[in-house]
Every structure is written in structure tokens, then in C-alpha cells.
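User: Study the chain.
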Amino acid sequence: MSGDVNWSSVALLLHADGADGSTTVTDSSSAARTVTVGGNAQLDTAQAKWGASSLLFDGTGDSCTVPYDAALHLSNQDFTIEFWFRGNASNTTRDIICFGNASNQTAWRLRVTSGGYLDFIFTNDAGTSAFCSQSSGQGFSSAHTQFHHVAITRAGTTFRCFVGGALVGSTTSSLIGRASASGPSYRLVIGSDTTLAAGMIGWLDDIRITAGVARYTAAFTPPAAAFPDGPPPSELYALGGSALGRGAALAWSQTVRASGGTALGRGSAYLLLSNIYAAGSTALGAGKALLWGQTITARGTTALGAGKAVARSQYVQVKGGTALGAGKAVLRVPQTITVRGGTALGAAKVRIYNDFTGAVDPAAPLLYVADLITPTGVVRVPISSWQATLQLDQACYGQAVLPAIFELVDPISQATEVIVLRKARLVGGGTVEQIMLRFPVETRSLAQGARNYTATLAGYFDAFPGESNLPESLTRDLQGVRSLTEDSGGVRIRADVDWLLRPGMSARYGATELEVSFINYYVPGNDQFMDIGERA
């Protein structure tokens, strides 16, 4: 599938495409950073790995600089720095890319040494450095006739150096980079050291920095095309044989469209981030259903025969006219949909995993809201904090604190369930909401202050069922890892809250992969993180 599943973490993407001699270099990441070209640095159509050109540097005052941004600092997180490099000459140590100030005080730098090998240096405020140096493989001691893919990654405490996909150097260090490397005096410099006095000689193409993700932790095949300019495609089409026959679709997508011929008439179904719209011409008659719940089962009698559809969702509404006629179906943000058929659908089975996280705008704030389920309907209320424990083998627990509820005392006192949702803006517009927690109201506490009320609602519910036989592609890569603990009790990792991770799924951080037995969420309002673990 084209598109970058880690697109939301891309902090810089320079394709270096343009007219020969041009000094306009465009950042294609969603950040669209300003790139200033200095000296004789320019686009050169004589050499290119992808596209029509690459960036040419002559080693004397040439550079491309990007103003300070925390996403380029890479102080205490996983990261990937990668590009295609073609050297022209090397007889002194020269920087390729670095982050620092004009006094050559760097937080990190990648250079090619006089011996022709890569050397990555990561430095803290005390001046202590971690070195990840190339110890084997292709050197760059003389002119080369081809581009080589170069990548530096950090996963946890391990720094790795790759050339052409081969692991050529690694080191382990818990060092945290310069905390002081912030503000306008610091910047990213490409093609030179931070003094802009001397730099590399040669060409660079397709430069990408990914903050928060170590894309490579073992040998790999270098990319076979230019880096993509966005998340995976927003639409995927899945077609089956005779009325879907034995067709099956596993889709990671923002939008899924399924079309049928015979039993489904010329119906179509669209799965969006927040809705499914289905319209048909036969089969469901004048039926109408308004369904609430985590699991909905629908059975047909005519064209769908003894078919059965199971949807895990927050909300489904189906209206039909004559065989759906002007019918409409709305399904709000499911994580998993499974459809099974009997007669008209044969033995067909379709399972759709809706991973929208690549489309979430990394610059948008993450918000939380709560819905109260009451006998008279659903009431949306503010939420100031929440916490929860989801686990496979013991009862789960949820708690939410609702502020400023003077006008909401009645629905709060009547609420039977609480749904906590995470909300964010999407790249290109629109919003997404995802259920993070749903629990019954077993205890409620109202506290009245001088100006307003605060309510605390809590409850226990059954152990999380998990899901079996999940494909490897659903393993979640943890972001913003703060700590990793391994002892006789098992593995425990503290990280940023994941939109979709649930007990029973797999999670990965660097070389550590675990089957998640429990998740503890802590969202006090001014921070948000989760502890996950695999019990021994």
C-alpha cells in the first residue's frame, strides 16, 4: 500500500526536486518548514536518485538551513534520519546533517570521516556524547557512481547506523540530548556543519526526518521509490466473486467502498472515519432499525438469506424504504467490522480494521469528551480527567471526573454508563472520535465548591475479551516511550496513549514486542500516558 503509516511523525521531507540550478527547496511534510539555501547549494538535474534532481553541495559554505523546531531537536525520543547520499570526494571530516547553533555546539550531527565512514554524535548539556559509528560495509572515501541509502535510528537506548539497508554500526546509550538546544540560535543544517564554513561534497536526495519512530531496527531493503507525501490512501475498494463469494478484505484505510452485483444489487457501502453510508435496491425491504451497543447482529431473510453481520461500534442507524430504497446506514468509527454470509453471500467473510491514526494531524491538540448513557438518551458532558484499567484476566475499572456540572446534575444522577472518547483534527480537515473507555456507573460522587459542582463517576466491568488470531500488521508501534521495565513479573512500558491498542493485541518498542495483558490509562488533564504490560 502506498502512503506512509508514520506520516503524522514526519518532521521534515525534502524531495529536492526542481529546475537545474534552482535554490528553492520545498519541505513536503505536513509542517511545510521554511528551507533557506546558502552558498552555492542548488538543485542539480545531472544527478538524482528519485525525481528530476538532487541537492548539490561543493563543500565551501554550501548549506540548507531550517529554523528551530522541537520536532527536529530529537532530544529524548525515538527517531529516524535518512536520505540518499552520493559522495564526490572526501579527504577531511565533513558534516552531512546536524542540529546546533552557529558556535558549532550541536545536539546531534551526522558526518562522514576522513576515512570515509559515517559517524553519528549525540550530545547532552554536559558535553557527554554517544557515538554510533560505521564499523563495516560501504565506505565513502572516494567518488561514487551511485546513490546509497543512509539511515540513523534510535529505538529506546539503541542507536543504529545503516547503509544500503545493512546494519553497519550500533551503540547503546541512555543519553538524553541537549535540553538547552532550543530557541532561534539553534537550527537544522544540511550539507555543512553549523558554522556553515565547510561541509560535504556531493549530492543528497529524498531527505526525511521522522520524530518519535525508529523505522529500522534490523537490516532492511532500502525504499524502492521516493518517500510518500502523505498517509496511506484514503480509499480502498474490495470486490468479491458471486455476491462476494469467498472474497475477503483486510483493509487499513480511511475510506472503504464495497460494491456488489447480484444479491447486493448495485448497492455500495462507504466506510469513512466516522460514518458508513449504505444504499441498495433490493433485499432489506421496508425495514428500519435503530441500534445501540458495542456489538450489533443483523440477520436477513431474502437476498441475504441466513446471512449474519456483526459490527463492533458505538452507534448504528439503518433506515429502509423499498428494499432500502432511499435507505441510509450510519456507523460511527468502529475499530473492527466483521461480516459473515450464509446463502447469497456464500461463505464470505470480510473483516475491516480501520486504522485512522496516520491521518491525525500531529499539530492538533488531543481532546477528551464524555457521553452519558441515560434512560432518555445520550448527553455529552465535559471531562477534566479520567483513568482506567483494561485487562484480560481480571475485572476492568473506569473513572471519570466531570467539571462544571451545575446544569448537568439530573443526567449525571440518571446515567447508567459513561463513554470516554478521544478526539482530534485530521490532516486536511475534519475530526475523528474514538471510544477509549466504556464503563457502568456504579458509584457517583458530587462535590460542590464555591462556584460549581464536580462529579466523579466510576465502575467495574468484565475482563476484556481481547481478539484472537490478529494479523501481524495490527501490531502497534509505541510512541513517546518514557520507561521500560523487565522483571520476574513480566514486561511493563510507559508510553503515549495509543488510539487503538487494547488488551490482547501486540505492541512493539524497538526490539521489544509483547502481547498486551493490561493497559492502565492516566489522563489527569495536563498530561496523558499509559502503562502497558505482558504478565509473565
Remarks:
- Residues 100 and 466 are 46 Å apart (CA to CA).
- Confidence is low (pLDDT under 50) at residues 234-337, 339-348.
- Residues 360-535 form a domain with the Phage tail proteins - horseshoe like beta roll fold fold (CATH 2.30.300.10).
